[in-house]
């Protein structure tokens, strides 16, 4: 049975010239444990991707490093030929080592290899959006991004990439990137409990640049807080719904890419993110992470 598109909470946003639903899908956790290897349930992973597209989600976030090369191939198997409106946003700048680490790979030749590999695995002639992933697993690290960003800008001029973004970046790096090339999105860690980018989000909103929080639900350690549970109980909703609704309301330039390997959770998240939050709810949620 196929799913019919629903009215997704949050409406749409435009990345450069590409319109996406603000409610997107993050595909990282479709792999095996530790974001390595194939999923335990291959058909289940395909079902989640098809459900996302069937619900009308047009923003899928991925990376060649997931698996590595697992998530992209699942996306291709599940959805190619892609629905006309679907946009796949990928990232380059890190690879995987045998221990499952994420060493940087940001020399121009590394980035070109990564872009070509993404194109091959996704079955595309051009990538809609490529994020340059900076920093490391502990977060952003200061330093110039000029060389890797120029390399991606060159691939954009060649037509291999439509739009550029940066990820795991400091505010200074975002400013440096904007001075070098048009930037359509910034993907950093941000959620109810981690609000270090508040000023950056507001600045980007004024510039028409999307802010795409990764780990919107807390990532590998899902958000847990007494205040969140209390607001959720009052609204007869799940904490995940409240966390997503809060992000959608936080700023119009926030795009959601919650991850899940479960069709039921995907449906629950789509239904829950449209939750209306009162001033009292927002005040209570403001106690989290402060
Ligand atoms: N740029 C970067 O450096 C970077 C880093 C990390 C992630 N990302 C991107 O951000 C996306 C989102 O991050 P994420 O998936 O790691 O973390 P997340 O969206 O914060 O949380 C995903 C976790 O929440 C669980 N979950 C989802 N919906 C749920 C529900 N309704 N009830 C209970 N549990 C639920 C999932 O488990 P189930 O599978 O059981 O639902 C999964 O364990 C990734 O897919 C990836 O595309 C980017």
Description:
The protein has 290 residues and is α/β, with parallel strands linked by helices. The chain has helices spanning 42-54, 71-79, 108-122, 146-157, 171-180, 198-207, 226-235, 239-250, 263-272, 279-285, and strands spanning 12-15, 18-21, 25-26, 59-61, 87-92, 127-133, 161-167, 183-187, 210-211. A seven-stranded parallel β-sheet has the order 3-4-5-6-7-8-9, with helices on one face. Strands 1-2 form a two-stranded antiparallel ribbon. Strand 6 (127-133), helix 4 and strand 7 form a beta-alpha-beta unit. The model has no long low-confidence stretch (mean pLDDT 97). Bound molecules: NADP nicotinamide-adenine-dinucleotide phosphate (NAP). The site of NADP nicotinamide-adenine-dinucleotide phosphate has 27 residues, from helix 9.
């Amino acid at each position: 049975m196929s799913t019919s598109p629903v009215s997704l909470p949050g409406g749409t946003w435009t990345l450069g010239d590409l319109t996406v639903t603000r409610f997107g899908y993050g595909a990282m956790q479709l792999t095996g444990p530790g974001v390595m290897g194939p999923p335990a349930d291959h058909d289940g992973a395909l079902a989640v991707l098809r459900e996302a597209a069937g619900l009308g989600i047009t923003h899928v976030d991925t990376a060649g490093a997931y698996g590595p090369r697992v998530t992209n191939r699942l996306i291709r198997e599940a959805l190619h030929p892609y629905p006309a409106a679907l946009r796949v946003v990928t990232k380059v700048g890190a690879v995987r080592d045998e221990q499952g680490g994420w060493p940087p790979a940001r020399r121009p030749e590394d980035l070109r290899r990564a872009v070509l590999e993404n194109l091959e695995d996704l079955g595309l002639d051009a990538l809609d959006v490529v994020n340059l992933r900076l920093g490391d697993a502990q977060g952003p690290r200061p330093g110039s991004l000029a060389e890797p960003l120029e390399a991606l800008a060159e691939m954009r001029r060649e037509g291999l990439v439509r739009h550029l973004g940066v990820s795991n970046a400091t505010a200074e790096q975002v400013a440096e990137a904007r001075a070098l090339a048009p930037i359509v999105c910034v993907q950093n860690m941000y959620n109810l409990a981690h609000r270090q980018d508040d000023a950056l989000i507001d600045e980007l909103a004024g510039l028409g640049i999307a802010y795409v929080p990764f780990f919107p639900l807390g990532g590998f350690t899902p958000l847990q807080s007494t205040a969140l549970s209390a607001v959720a109980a009052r609204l007869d909703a799940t904490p995940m719904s409240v966390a997503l609704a809060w992000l959608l309301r936080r700023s119009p330039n926030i795009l959601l890419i919650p991850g899940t390997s479960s069709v039921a959770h995907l449906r629950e998240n789509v239904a829950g993110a449209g939750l209306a939050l009162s001033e009292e709810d927002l005040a209570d949620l403001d106690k989290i992470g402060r």
